[in-house]
Amino acid sequence: MSAPATTRFSPSAGLSRWLGSHLSLSIGAGILVFFVLIAIFAPLVAPYDPVLQMADVRLTGPSLAHPLGTDNFGRDMLSRLIYGTRIDLQIALIGVIFPFIIGTVLGTVAGFFGGIVDAIFMRIIDIILAFPFLVLMLAIIAILGPGLTSFYIAMALVGWVSYARLVRAQILVLKNSDYAIAAVSLGFSRTRIMFRHLLPNAIAGSLVFVMSDAVLVLLNGAAISYLGLGVQPPTAEWGIMVAEGQPFVTTAWWITLFPGLAIVVLAFGFSLLGDALGDLLGVHE
Amino acid sequence: MHRYKFVFYRPLQLLPVLFGISVITFILVRMIPGDPARVLLGTRATPTAIARIREQYGLDEPLWRQYFYFLENLAHGEMGKSTLYKIDVLKLVMTRIEPTLMLVLVSVILSILIAVPLSTIAARRQGRIADHAVRIVSTMGIGFPPFWLALMLIIFFSVRLDLFPVSGYGRDPLDKLWHLALPSLTIALSLSAVLTRSLRGAMVQALQSDVATAARARGMPEGIVFWRHVLPNSLVPTINLLAINIGWLIGGTVVVESVFAIPGMGQLLIRAIFSRDYMVVQGVAMVFACATVLINFMADVITVTLDPRIKL
């Protein structure tokens, strides 16, 4: 039985925690920067055109000429993976940024004004949260028609609620603080108090949440593309690449393995960044 | 029994939410461009059928009145007809509930069987290698795309080892469980990553609680402290965590049912989207939303039953 490592005072605990979050930060940031560079320089790093079909190399395993093999159309999987980085990073970025902006603004307004405005927003949030996230997303995409634009619109319509709840809770506390009351007595406009005084102090939790949200958005975007309702072929995107490899999963495993691994690594990077930011900013979910 | 008062008034509080769910599903289908009657009946509808639908839903009348008709139909268990399967949406959804429910149940049980031992190891060896390993694995596990994980499990367990079927759903209960092995393992692996991260935290806190310290002071061995005080105190957070993640879990079943061709509600939803069977999309979304609300309510009841300190 191990002794309880609980109440004992340990001078190194703070240090290791500090080092731990810095290590998470470096690895997480490293992974993200790596993928961003690959996305920017895709034409330079990719050995082939991602949609070029080479009839003589169909379904060939990893080799020197094609390090990650080729698919049933004879397309180079490494090149598709590299170009796919562009789409999947875009999914994570756009899929997070609109919900973040909409949710932050609405949450700030609801928390600041309170009363009937707040009550209405909270009820809307309750109702949206009653739906399983992916089911509501899929229902909206069903109406708008398949495609990445539909995915982004659906994300904006559904994803803002988490950000609104986070910011609202902070604003409710902050609006009674001394500096907020001082700002009111100085005669500043409500807009200025909300967005210049309160919001910067309320945003830390949302910034940390952005990272874990990016993981969910990436997984959902890839899943929707996998289901055939997001990115359409022949565009290279990791989710749809997995779907395209599925019929050959027993013989040509390389088609499905690598795009999935890419998602796992990128998601891991976001998670590490989120953990590290949470530690550094003193925010815990 | 005073503590259970909420069992009676909480459903009343849920009424606005259920009302909202009906409004959203109503709006969803009315947002589709084009003639609603044609949308509801499909492209090859006969004029008489169109006329009947127009009357039933009051499609020539103002929107609020149409919503009223929608509610009235709903109260009679009438959610329209599937254009693809030619039967009532509610009946169709009913036949699909069992596989999805089984998938969710088996996944939850499996994920608890994975998450509890992992969190226990991590919490009791806090700050050591085992703890770090569990934390890294669970952080990574959250980012595993279920549809991909499913295929990897198929490669390993079905193709290499020939242990489990690749797709479909069995006939008798045992055969069904057999077919659900890989689908539920897929969901359980992702879910247990989420559970482990939170459960470890709950256990670490419980290890430091006054109850645990007092037990140690009485000379209780660390192992018994854990079983008698730490584990039970981590149970309530786990149930709440499962309730919070139920929406996410249902999203997972939608994807996984499509990968393994399980005839559940998720697969029904995806097929309905592709065949523009909007009444089915509407019906499945509504049933899933109501199920989520119901499960959260049940989690509240269980929480209050298990922990006398909690009042709702």
TrEMBL record, chain A:
Principal location class: membrane
Spans through the membrane: 25-46, 91-117, 124-144, 150-167, 198-231, 251-273
Keyword DNA repair: no
Superkingdom field: Bacteria
This protein's UniProt keywords: Cell membrane, Membrane, Peptide transport, Protein transport, Transmembrane, Transmembrane helix, Transport
Family: Belongs to the binding-protein-dependent transport system permease family.
SUPFAM superfamilies given in the database record: MetI-like (SSF161098)
Coiled coil: none
The name this protein goes by in its record: ABC transporter permease
InterPro entries with a match to the protein in the record: BP-dependent_transpt_permease, MetI-like, MetI-like_sf, OppC_N
Single biological process term from Gene Ontology: transmembrane transport
PANTHER family hit by this protein: D,D-DIPEPTIDE TRANSPORT SYSTEM PERMEASE PROTEIN DDPC-RELATED, OLIGOPEPTIDE TRANSPORT SYSTEM PERMEASE PROTEIN APPC
GO CC, any one term: plasma membrane
Localization (cell): Cell membrane
Record bears the keyword Transmembrane helix: yes
Membrane topology term: Multi-pass membrane protein
ABC transmembrane type-1 domain ranges (all copies): 85-274
UniProtKB/TrEMBL annotation, chain B:
Membrane-spanning ranges: 12-32, 100-121, 133-157, 177-195, 241-263, 283-306
Superkingdom to which the source organism belongs: Bacteria
SUPFAM superfamilies assigned: MetI-like (SSF161098)
A family per Pfam: BPD_transp_1
Domain ABC transmembrane type-1: 97-299
This protein's UniProt keywords: Cell membrane, Membrane, Transmembrane, Transmembrane helix, Transport
Matches recorded under Gene3D superfamilies: MetI-like
Subcellular location, principal: membrane
InterPro entries noted in UniProt: BPD_transp_1_N, MetI-like, MetI-like_sf
The UniProt record lists the keyword Acetylation: no
Membrane topology term: Multi-pass membrane protein
Annotated compartments: Cell membrane
CDD domains reported in the protein's UniProt record: TM_PBP2
BP GO terms, sorted: transmembrane transport
Cellular-component GO terms for this entry: plasma membrane
PANTHER family: DIPEPTIDE TRANSPORT SYSTEM PERMEASE PROTEIN DPPB-RELATED
Family: Belongs to the binding-protein-dependent transport system permease family.
Protein name (record): ABC transporter permease
Species annotation: Pseudohoeflea suaedae
